[in-house]
Specification:
The chain is of the alpha/beta class. The chain is built from 18 helices and 18 strands. Helix 14 crosses helix 15.
Length: about 575
């Protein structure tokens, strides 16, 4: 089992904490996330729809908007090339929707997404298709900002190239392309935006150029924010700054007026759109959108997001549900085989990292397994699908270890490599697998990182059992949307008596505790923690760390704690 998490104490509060929001707990929570004056708190907690930010703060946006405006007005054929993940799919759907009213004729704007076997980014087959269709302007979204080869290949075919991307730019931008990227300006307020957000800012600029863009079927341009919310959450971008505004307003659009495709996804996930939250989306919605691209062709997900007919959307969502079920089955099989591969190494417990590969593993699913195992085993991990010559797959890391930085010094061993501190994608010759393993292991050891790396829990506030009320829950809810960079606050309760205990679930893997003395109880659920039942027997006292939830039980709303960890009271 992985080590118990380290608890990080909350930041001390000033002796005279200002009243930021009229609630003591909310005042403390806001202060600790850096919201420290009443105006900033009012802005942070406001529910009003925010005006679109200035798109022209993005480098090269004016040039790109002018080129696309000209193309739309003169009837040029425009090709959009995206990516097979949620961000790339939603960004492509956003542009296609926004351009619809500006097209001189149907199919003036065409789109292409890469199939899984083609790999990430632009490819020759797609460029050949665009050339055959008479495309003279290529818009690469969520890719292309470092792809000198394929941008040049597009230009050789007579296409101008506009790039809308958010990825790190390695070296110079592709020559001759108009690259719209916050990465070109380290001071940009959009540095942490996903490509769907960049695409939205681009459409805002087009509107200012007089292009008739909208949110679909005559809806206002701001109705495109549902796509931005899905892309931002799916790409695990921090919900701070402009991203927070985009996601809050985009989720509200889904709750109030979902597109047929998004409604069908909610139906498939057994969630009512009105009840969908930013915390539901990464578990219920984005994995389904991703499933099509992971298993082969993401076009079905794009068609679903663009669907205007509820019956068509329902059919497409059913197909995606079938694909997603298959993805889960394959993922479980790969996970079992990968775990067996780990355990066949007699000294696996002392390994600083794992590099696993098998020719039977599906390339679209290995990243999920890598993420799961990096958490489970507390060390960086690479999982590859091999074809006998090359391994293609993903790496995942642990907090405190930047895997891209660690491997960037050996880029020559990769045919393809890129990512960020906690995740990377790669293609590598199987003959260099041992070199990869040695390089990664040396880098981990050089950092002095504890292996297995213990996870950590940041405590947002200490509270008492009697403070867990509906009013407290409502105060916390005012901090929505929750997600990366603005996580739901983890509360700590000290020296709490355990009154009852129940091991539950079909596989009896979950632990439920009743905390309190009978007069002021609360149920606490700790998922996949039945193995720790002996540490929280009735009559014992424990410190708990968890998030406050509210759900329905027998037609009645009730509060519960969702535990992240617990320990015997007094234990450090």
């Amino acid at each position: 089992m992985p080590p118990h998490p380290i608890w990080i104490d909350p930041e001390p509060l000033p002796s005279h904490l200002p009243d930021l929001a009229g609630n003591a707990l909310l005042n403390a929570l806001l202060w600790r996330i850096g919201v420290r004056d009443r105006q900033a708190a009012s802005d942070f907690l406001s529910n009003r729809m925010r005006p679109s930010p200035d798109p022209f703060l993005l480098p090269n946006l004016d040039r790109a908007a002018h080129r696309v405006t000209t193309a739309l007005a003169t009837g040029e054929r425009i090709g959009i090339f995206g990516d097979y993940d949620v961000d790339g799919i939603t960004a492509t759907a956003l542009l296609l929707t926004a351009f619809q009213p500006a097209q001189r004729e149907p199919e003036q704007v065409v789109a292409r997404l890469p199939r899984r076997e083609e790999g990430y980014g632009l490819n020759e087959a797609a460029l050949d298709e665009f050339e055959a269709e008479g495309v003279s302007l290529l818009i690469a979204v969520d890719c292309g900002s470092s792809d000198h080869h394929h941008v040049a290949a597009a230009q050789e075919r007579g296409m101008d190239v506009v790039v809308l991307d958010h990825h790190l730019i390695v070296g110079e931008s592709p020559e001759g392309a108009i690259v719209v990227s916050a990465r070109l300006d380290p001071e940009s307020p959009y540095l942490h935006c996903c490509s769907a957000a960049i695409a939205y800012l681009f459409t805002s600029a087009l509107a200012q150029h007089g292009v008739p863009v909208d949110g679909g079927e005559g809806r206002p341009e701001t109705d495109l924010l549902d796509f931005v919310a899905l892309g931002t959450i799916g790409d695990v971008c921090p919900l701070t700054g402009v991203n927070r505004d985009f996601v809050r307003d985009g989720v509200r659009l889904i709750q109030r007026s979902p597109r047929p495709g998004i409604r069908a996804l909610c139906d498939a996930a057994s969630v009512t759109p009105a009840d969908l939250s930013s915390e539901d989306i990464p578990f219920r919605i984005t994995p389904r959108i991703n499933a099509a691209g992971r298993m082969g062709d993401p076009r079905i997900a794009l068609d679903l997001l663009l669907a205007t007919d509820r019956w068509e959307a329902s059919m497409l969502a059913n197909e995606i549900e079938r694909i997603n079920s298959r993805r889960k089955q394959i993922g479980d099989q790969i996970a079992n085989e990968a775990e067996a591969q780990i355990h066949t190494d007699a000294g696996w417990e002392s390994r600083a990292c794992f590099v696993l590969h098998d020719e039977a593993w599906h390339a679209g699913v290995v990243g999920i397994v890598a993420g799961k195992f990096a958490n489970r085993y507390g060390r960086p991990l690479v999982v590859l699908s091999d074809d006998g010559d090359y391994g293609r797959g993903s790496a995942r890391s642990v907090p405190g270890f930047n895997i891209v930085e660690a491997l960037s010094g050996r880029r020559e061993i990769f045919d393809h490599f890129g990512g960020h501190s906690q995740a990377a994608g790669m293609t590598i010759s199987l003959g260099l697998i041992d070199t990869l393993r040695d390089t990664l292991e040396s880098a981990v050891l050089a950092t002095g990182l504890q292996i297995p790396a213990p996870p950590s829990i940041t405590i947002a506030a200490d509270v008492r059992l009697e403070h867990l009320t509906a009013a407290t829950f409502d105060a916390i809810e005012r901090m929505q949307p929750f997600g990366a960079g603005n996580e739901r606050p983890i509360l700590r309760l000290r020296n709490v008596p355990v009154r009852e205990q129940l091991i539950m679930g079909q596989d009896r893997s979950h632990l439920r505790l009743t905390l309190g003395t009978g007069g002021n109880d609360i149920k606490a659920v700790f998922w996949s923690a039945a193995h720790r039942a002996k540490e929280a027997l009735p009559g014992s006292r424990i410190d708990v760390a968890g998030v406050l939830r509210r759900d329905m039980w027998n037609g009645r709303e009730q509060l519960r704690l969702e535990l992240k960890d617990f320990r015997t009271s007094g234990e450090r």
